[in-house]
Specification:
50% of the residues lie in helices and 11% in strands. It has 27 helices and 21 strands. Strand 10 and strand 11 (325-326) form a beta hairpin. The chain is globular.
């Protein structure tokens, strides 16, 4: 007789459902679970992860499916599973706990706490049996039981101290304003941490950190510091040619386990695709390097092909594993390649993608992660093929390999749709569509926005959509990232409705999340099921909700008069001044908002007959060039109603006219595109 599934069988989270057949008596995060722990007088074992997490799968396979380990867990604890992507607030609280106790963190995150949710032990991945330097579950569980039964005061003392530390961490002490020197300080920190050889920052493991590169582009624009641009270009080039970039299917893996971008951790996250699409698009906008455009288009096509739902929202992620083997879907050996391609094409593919007989993937002998081993320019130097022939040949090889790979068993796809990550992708597609003149990208962003508005924004914004159900009240990131996406979508479409949507989301975020006493924004709207309400101002794998909200506020303040927005922005920046000053490179996306504030910033308002080609020519030219502190607005009745300051900007006959305003102080209107560009102080690399 088969064992019955545990309580997770009734959940919607793909991650929780992956554990529904475990012999561990898992509970979701509910009041009933904590009440049971009180009744049984046992601690709570909290395990936090996500559906595409490789080491979460390993821990499940080793321990949570093992009947002996499950019995130990069930006897000693009430066991709770949390999907960090569904409940980022819970994850943030206990990740900070882990960092306070151990100095580091990661997933799976393992927390042991009192029935009052106060943690006293923390770790990450735990093996079944003790290994060098890591206590195994079979040894840890009896130790915790003994502590709880005979020395509980030690556990509760730690728990009380940790909870007090968590609450103290949210008490901010506003200080003086930041000045432009903070941008120099951040640049110098990044320069010190920069890997001149391989690009990126620090050593292994190495994360793309697109928000750092976005900051560096703005720093280059402000200062003409060529090192800043060179750091971005080298990093983008090294990443796009490395194994972290899926050379066949497009899109990027989550991070590289080495410092050369060769050996990826193979999961693909939607938020990474969005942020990388943004930086490759902006880098192209400055340099006109077609390789950046190709990489950006590959990212966009991957998302539209493999991560788009029938309702046109965007799925969350793809797993690192297929057939229970990490990376198997993406690996190739020379023998297999030669069985697919003719001899000449196989030899060319081996050279281009850097394959070797030995292989470059340590876990699987003879297997290779595809990377760019030889560039097109290097191949052209051999003069065996001309550029047109080589381009066609490489395209044919790639298409053939894609076709063969598509028949393999794909990694698991997490098909929940998250409002925050969709917001980032909406914004990225909108910008890419605008810069590359790709209308389909903009339409895809609009379709996703329409889906979110119709399915997740009724009766308050919801965080997750899965299995035809929208649920979980939205968090700060949902409001901030969606507002960001809508602002970008306005700039791509000039439909004032998107600007109105962004304004509404930001206003609701102020009501739900702002810390009215100390400034900044909490992650969640209340702490009814939490021991504290956390604020996360620093930028990690993604920009923080506080950073994105700061940029939203800056942009909206420039075009919409709202004293509440101005006051909230001032409080946010003042309260985090000390943190930013102490470690500016940890707040690089927040610094993009500061860069906008320091200015000069511009609003370019175009007034003209929409049926006239010259009107749209002026709009397109002013939108084409990279200028991180400008917004191009098109005067319409809807915009006038929203912004007020555009009402008196009249059209002169059928002639399009540009009003270039610097911090709402407008210069003389002009019908000359060249004069408008001059007033904007546009610069670019020819």
């Amino acid at each position: 007789m088969e064992d019955k599934p545990n309580r997770l069988i009734n959940e919607l989270s793909p991650y929780l459902l992956q554990h529904a057949d475990n012999p561990v008596d898992w509970w979701p995060w509910t009041d009933e679970a904590f009440q049971l722990a009180k009744q049984r007088d046992v601690p709570v074992f909290l395990s936090i992860g996500y559906s595409t997490c490789h080491w979460c799968h390993v821990m499940e396979k080793e321990s949570f499916t093992d009947p002996d380990v499950a019995k130990l867990l069930n006897d000693a604890f009430v066991c709770i599973k949390v999907d960090r992507e569904e409940r980022p607030d819970i994850d943030a609280t206990y990740m900070m706990t882990c960092q306070l106790l151990t100095g580091s963190g990661g997933w799976p995150l393992t927390i042991i706490m009192t029935p009052d949710k106060e943690p006293f032990w923390a770790g990450t991945y735990l093996p079944k049996k003790t290994r060098v330097g890591v206590t195994g579950l079979t040894e840890l569980i009896p130790m915790i039981q003994e502590l709880w039964k005979k020395q509980r005061y030690r556990a509760t003392t730690i728990a009380t101290a940790l909870t007090e530390s968590l609450n103290r961490s949210e008490v901010e002490h506003p200080s003086s304003k930041l000045n432009k020197r903070i941008l120099d300080d951040a640049f110098n920190q990044l320069l010190e941490d920069y890997d001149e050889t391989n690009g990126g920052f620090g050593g292994a493991p190495k994360f793309p950190s697109p928000h750092r590169l976005i900051f560096l582009l703005r720093y280059w624009f402000r200062t003409d510091n060529e090192n800043a641009l060179a750091m971005v270009e080298n990093t983008l080039t090294q990443m796009k040619t490395g194994g972290i970039n899926d050379q066949l299917g497009g899109g990027f893996h989550r991070y590289s386990t080495d410092d050369k971008w060769l050996l990826p951790h193979f999961e693909k996250m939607l938020y990474d695709q969005a942020m990388l699409l943004l930086i490759y698009t902006e880098a192209y906008q400055i340099t006109h390097n077609q390789q950046y455009e190709h990489t950006a288009r590959d990212i966009a096509e991957y998302v539209l092909r493999d991560l788009t739902s029938p309702e046109r929202g965007f799925y969350s992620a793809e797993d690192a594993d297929s057939e229970n083997i990490e990376g198997k879907f993406y690996l190739w050996d020379i023998e297999g390649l030669k069985a697919i391609l003719n001899e000449a094409d196989a030899n060319l593919a081996i050279k281009v993608y850097g394959l070797t007989e030995k292989g470059n993937f340590p876990e699987s002998p003879k297997m290779n992660i595809l990377r760019i081993g030889t560039t097109e320019d290097q191949l052209l130097q051999t003069k065996e093929l001309n550029k047109e022939e080589l381009t066609q040949k490489l395209w044919d090889i790639r298409r053939k390999l894609q076709e063969i790979r598509s028949k393999r068993i794909r990694p698991f796809r997490d098909e929940k749709i998250l409002s925050d990550w969709n917001g980032l992708m909406i914004g990225a597609l909108a910008k890419a569509g605008l810069v590359f003149g790709e209308e389909e990208y903009i339409k895809s962003a609009e379709r996703a926005a329409s889906f979110i508005k119709s399915r997740l924004m009724k009766n308050g914004l919801k965080h997750r959509y899965y299995n035809n159900q929208a649920s979980i009240n939205g968090f700060l990131d949902d409001y901030a990232f969606l507002a960001f996406g809508f602002i970008e979508l306005y700039e791509a479409t000039l439909d004032a409705g998107y600007l109105s949507d962004a304004t509404q989301l930001v206003q609701e975020a102020l009501d739900l999340f702002e810390d009215k006493e100390f400034g900044g924004f909490f992650i969640n709207s209340n702490k009814t099921d939490q021991i504290t309400r956390l604020k996360e101002p620093y930028d990690g794998a993604m920009p923080s909700g506080n950073s994105v909200m700061a940029l939203n506020l800056v942009k909206l303040i420039k075009v919409i008069y709202n004293p509440d927005f101005e006051n909230a922005l001032e409080r946010l920046l003042k309260t985090y001044t000390t943190r930013i000053s102490n470690n500016p490179q940890a707040y690089t996306f927040l610094l993009t908002a500061l860069d906008y504030i320091f200015g000069p910033s511009f609003e370019a308002v175009i007034s003209g007959d929409p049926s006239q080609e010259l009107t749209w020519k002026m709009i397109e030219v002013l939108r084409t060039y990279y200028h991180p502190t400008k917004m191009v607005l098109y005067k319409t009745p809807e915009l006038d109603e929203l912004t007020q300051f555009t009402k008196n900007m009249i059209t002169q006959g059928s002639q399009a006219i540009a009003y270039i305003c610097q911090d709402k102080a407008c210069k003389l209107p002009t019908t000359s595109i060249d004069e408008a560009l001059k007033q904007l102080n546009i610069k670019h690399i020819k």
